[in-house]
Design goal:
single chain; about 450 residues; alpha/beta; FAD/NAD(P)-binding domain; 3 domains; 7-stranded mixed β-sheet; 6-stranded mixed β-sheet; 14 helices; 18 strands; binds flavin-adenine dinucleotide; squalene monooxygenase; membrane; oxidoreductase; Squalene_monox
Length: about 450
């Protein structure tokens, strides 16, 4: 193994591997370190939007479609949950995504990285310090080994130790918990699409991860501890929102497998590194998985990093590209999880708008896929949906003579209006108060 490298990449998750491959493709030598090679077996990102697929293909993963069973993923189907027909939202311009178990993506990327002569992969190996000389601890021997690289790329995930070593605050905040459950031998209501349902406890996401397997992601509030302890209670809270065949498959799955619980966290994507250390992927920031954008954003970090002239250029490009996907994730999660009547009205208005407007469906999917990251698009969509919800709610209250409530309702909708306003203010990102942490 070489003793000097152009780049040292910390963490061989999806984004670290992608970074190593991208630098190697440019002829740079790379030291790729992974502390826990089995970390990829946990429940984590499985759905990748078209923008992420495009970058993976550039990195040499041309046959992603080959292990995406039942064809490409064409978008999402929203289930309003009131007995109304589901709404199909396709990616614009025939674009497609992929979905499969997290470890399959990481295995494939690691295989590609290890096959490249420019990359030295060391595992288990954990970055232990940056000062005075960067070093890692070899997990097999326990020896500390100096890192001799011109630059360091930290891809060590949302609890990034590199951030800590750089003296950057861990500004991540817990949002909720998500159960990953595998359903066997069940059909999705529409194959080739991810499905978003409004559950009793929180939003539900479902998509195919294998020829015979479907993933169910159940979001529950952090306060609902009984749902995490008691699978009968979980089933009772979730099953009514599911199509009958999926509810049946859930009952079978809960009898044989434990749900994989993961905390969902938020950290705003504003700090991209310091000195010769660049952050990529979840080490920069993370959002709720509802919009499934973590991997695609991380891959865009990699693309921007290798194309950037310097650290400031990289940070400037990515701050601008991540602002709207981050706000969209927080706004949509609030719309789907807030049980109050104004949030429910906005949710209903969103479904009504999607149902009647092909242009709005297209705009939403371009925002979701992060192919359109303009604040004006986010603002226009959110304003239209929010305004319709407010007009309908206030109109009904006035017709019924609930004048005193109308003032309160207007105040509630006014608080939602800060989302589209934030979209229009260049560089500004709205963070809901409960997700704000030190450093935001
Ligand atoms: C429940 C859940 C569902 C999700 N679903 C989706 C989805 O459908 N689509 C999507 O795009 N995103 C999703 N995400 C987000 C997605 O999983 C992350 O964005 C993605 O895994 C980030 O990749 P990463 O390589 O930056 O970090 P990680 O995947 O966290 O990888 C970091 C790697 O660094 C290693 N490491 C850590 N510290 C060190 C150290 N000191 N030295 C060496 N190595 C180290 C770790 O062992 C790990 O292998 C989901 C997240 C959760 C929690």
């Amino acid at each position: 193994m070489r003793t000097e490298h152009d780049v040292a990449v910390i963490g061989a998750g999806p984004i670290g591997c992608a970074a190593a491959i991208a630098f190697a493709q440019r002829g740079e030598t790379v030291l790729l370190l992974e502390a826990n090679p089995r970390a990829a077996e946990r429940f984590a990102g499985e759905w990748i939007h078209p923008s992420g697929v495009r970058i993976l293909q550039k990195l040499g993963l041309g046959d992603l479609a080959a292990f995406t069973e039942n064809g490409p993923r064409r978008g999402f189907v929203a289930h309003p949950g009131d007995g109304a027909d589901p709404i199909v939202l396709s990616y614009p311009d025939g674009m497609t995504g992929v979905s499969f178990e997290h470890h399959r993506l990481v295995d494939e990327l690691r295989r590609r990285a290890v096959s490249m002569p420019e990359i030295d992969y060391v595992a288990p190996a954990k970055l232990s310090k940056l000062e005075p000389v960067p070093a890692y601890v070899d997990g097999d021997t326990g020896a500390e080994v100096a890192i001799n690289a011109k630059r360091i790329v930290a891809a060590d995930g949302r609890r990034s130790g590199t951030r800590r070593l750089l003296g950057l605050p861990d500004g991540s905040v817990g949002i909720s918990f998500m159960a990953g459950i595998v359903l066997d031998d069940v059909e999705l209501p529409v194959e080739g699409y991810g499905h978003v349902l409004s559950g009793l406890a929180g939003p539900i996401l479902s998509y195919r991860i294998g020829a015979d397997q479907v993933r169910l992601c159940l979001d529950v509030p952090a306060s609902a501890t009984e749902l995490r302890r008691d699978t009968d209670a979980l089933y009772a809270a979730v099953a009514p929102a599911l199509p009958a065949p999926m509810a049946k498959a859930l009952a079978v799955s809960l009898k044989t497998r434990k749900p994989a619980w993961m905390e969902t966290r938020f950290q705003t994507r504003t700090v991209y590194g310091r000195g010769n250390v660049a952050l990529v992927g979840d080490a920069v920031g993370c959002t709720h998985p509802l919009t499934a954008v973590g991997i695609s954003l991380g891959l865009k970090d990699v693309e921007a990093l290798v194309d950037s002239t310097d650290a400031a250029d990289y940070a400037r490009r990515q701050r601008a590209r991540a602002r709207v996907p981050e706000m969209l994730s927080n706004a949509l999660y609030q719309v789907f999880s807030d049980p109050r009547y104004d949030a429910r009205a906005i949710r209903q208005s969103m479904f009504d708008t999607w149902r009647t407007s092909a242009a709005e469906r297209r705009r939403t999917m371009a925002l979701l896929a992060a192919t359109d990251v303009r604040g004006s698009t986010f603002a226009t969509s959110f304003f239209r949906i929010g305004f319709r919800a407010a007009r309908k709610t206030v109109g009904a209250e006035m017709r019924e003579g609930h004048w005193s409530r109308t003032r309160q309702t207007l105040a509630r909708f006014a608080s939602w209006s800060t989302w589209p306003i934030a979209g229009l203010v260049p560089g500004y990102r709205k963070i809901p108060a409960h997700l704000k942490a030190a450093g935001h």
